[in-house]
Each structure stands twice: as C-alpha cells, then as structure tokens.
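Q: May I have one protein plus its fold?
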Amino acid sequence: MTGFSWTAEARDGAARAGHLHTAHGTVPTPTFMPVGTAGTVKAMTADAVRSTGAGIVLGNTYHLMLRPGAERVQALGGLHRFMDWPGPILTDSGGFQVMSLGHLRKLDGDGVTFRSHLDGTTHRLTPERSTAIQHALDSTITLCFDECPALPASTDAIAASMRLSMRWAARSRDAFVPRDGYAQFGIVQGGVEPDLRAESVRALREIGFEGYAVGGLAVGEGQALMFSTLDATVPLLPADRPRYLMGVGTPDDLLGAVTRGLDMFDCVMPTRAGRTARAYTGLGILNLRNARHASDPRPVEPGCSCPACARHSRAYLHHLFRADEILGPMLLTWHNLHYYQHLMRSLRAAIVAGRLAAHAEALRTGWAAGDPT
C-alpha cells in the first residue's frame, strides 16, 4: 500500500523519533492519542484538543456501533466530519470492550455475541464485521479484531486466546480494504509470556500489516512486568513500521515505553483524572480538591501555557470542583492533555538531540520531588 508510512528521523538507544504519514496528515512520533471513545474527547471541543498539540485521536468501534451507529456516521460524511477532526483517527476494534462485558457476551471461534450495556439488545462482532464498521467510520488506522482474555489466567488459556486472536487477525486482514494513506495494525497478544508474545509477533509478521500494536498490557500486571514483556517483544517488531502500545498510561509508563522503542500511545488517564480534580505536572500529581489549594494564587503548573494555568489559579480550580461546576473538569482535562502532549514533544526533542537518558532522569526526579506547598 502507498501513502501510509512511518519514517525515522533519529534514534537514541532503542527510542525512535519519526513521522507517521497518513491520508489525513502527518504526525510526529512519539505521539499520544487522546481518547475520543464515542466521537468526542470528554469535556473538550475539537479546537481545544487541537490546541494541546494532539495530531491524532482514538475512537472505538464498540461504542460507535451502538450509538449512533456506524452507518449513520458514514451517511453523515464519516467520523472525521462528524466529530470535526480532519486529522488522523485510529479506531480500536471493540475487542477489549466486548471481552469486558463478562456475562453479557458469548465467545465462539467465529466471533462474539453480546448484549449492549446500554439497552440489552443483542449484537455480534466478528473480524469481518469489526473491520467493516471501521471502514464505514472512515478510520485512518483500523485495528484487527482480537480477544483480550481476563487476567489472571493460566498459560494454556492465554495461549489459546492468543492463537484465536491470530486467526482473527488473518480474517481481519482479508476483510480490510486497502486505500491510499490508510492502514491496518495487527495486535500482539500473549500475556506476559515471552514465548507466546514471540509466537504472536511471528504470526502477525507473516500476515503483514502497516503497523503493529502491543495489546493485553496495563491490565494489572504491574509496571515492572509490563516493561520486561516489552523488552522481550518490541525488538521482534519490524523496525520500519509504527509500534503502538495500547491503553498506556501514566507519564512514567510512557517514558519507559518510549525508551523501549514504542511510537504511539493512548490512555484515558489524563481525561479521567481531569474530571476527578487530579492534575498531571512535572512535579507529580496534584489533587485540586485538597484544602491546601483553597487560597493558593499560583497556577496548577508555573510556566504551562494551557488556559487553566495561563488564566486561573489553583484556588479558582479548587472552588470549581468544590462547587461541582463543569468548568473545573473542562479546564483540568485541558491541562492534562496539554501536559501529555508537552511530555511527548520533550521526549521527541531529547531523542533527536541524543540526550534522552539525561532528560528521563530529570523527569523522574521532578515527579518524585512532588509539589512544594
């Protein structure tokens, strides 16, 4: 396929700085994708998301197929027009959400039958249906349909699940309609078992995808085990393709993943934290509901140019959350996404300058120091 590619600009150890070229624009990497599950990044307008420096956002097949429906989005011009995001959009296949439904879903070798968490109606997702929905949404980057097993699970159960996902990956690939500048990513599974991860990578490379995602991590295994799994997995992935770590994570998670050679990330943490009065900063996490902020005239983070910091005090944000005013979650979500994008830009600049190790040390020192009162 032409038109979609990832090109390297610089490397520092395993870390990579590059550019993702797509039908909907070019994105510098490493990059963090704000989560717009149902066609919106919660508490943010599209202009606000753009102002943070985000170049690509994430949508979700499961939620959009249920409401408002992929066919309706397609009839209205596709997800880019529907949500006012002309830039690249990556869509999760819906596999993770469906597998999280527990007793509301039934798995078989062909796909999954499930009941909607919204109204109890019955639906079915297969690799072919998931791929078709993402096509209807006009997703720039489609993900193959996979099973995400609930953990903890036995090694045999994880192996069986991974091999089912690989069969579904081949079917997803067959169903994908190649278009100039569009892509489909395979998803590496296998729990925290290095041999299963290696088997999964071999199967996906044999199928052949424009990019590769690492799934099934940040699900309770702990950071050390996640990093050791990445250490065993990432070097096996093609060096000329983008690498996406799904659903991760905290700033320290992102730093560790970038140093291991991952390029793309998404997580609900910055937006969810913003709605619950928690701010990510270079000096760790602040809880704006804490009484110590009630009379504090300082911004959340001195030097930050986001509207929450440039125009308002900690005292005002504290007041908004104590008063249950919706502006509080809006402003703090804006700040958190701004911080995550600033973090990605700083990591990219450090890779290009060949000083990632020193920058990583400075970041971790700041996070550990905490905010002075």
